[in-house]
Amino acid sequence: FTATTAGEGKVGETVVTLVRVEVDGDAMTLGIDPKTGQLRSLLARGTGPNGAPADVLTEYDDYRAEGGITVPHARRSIVGGTTAQKITVRSLQVNPALPADAFGPGK
In 3D, which of 53, 72, 92, 89 has the Cα closest to residue 14? Predict the structure, then answer.
């Protein structure tokens, strides 16, 4: 992959450093908060609500510590300037105990 800086942008009121990443011919632009190192946005080619290819901007917010890691608890995907999806994480468990038979044939 290759990564190059692409200037500055904003996610809400947060100034982000834009980084263009190319992997095997696919390109995306990451918006990284320079103060925290947190991913605040991801712009990539994806599938729009009508099934056609589209530029999809995903914004990440409400970072909180859970189980020793900091993760976003809010995500919004925008296609053509319109919010296409919102996700709010209400609870999160990191490495919860699972019964020994939780996975396998027939599960």
Answer: 72
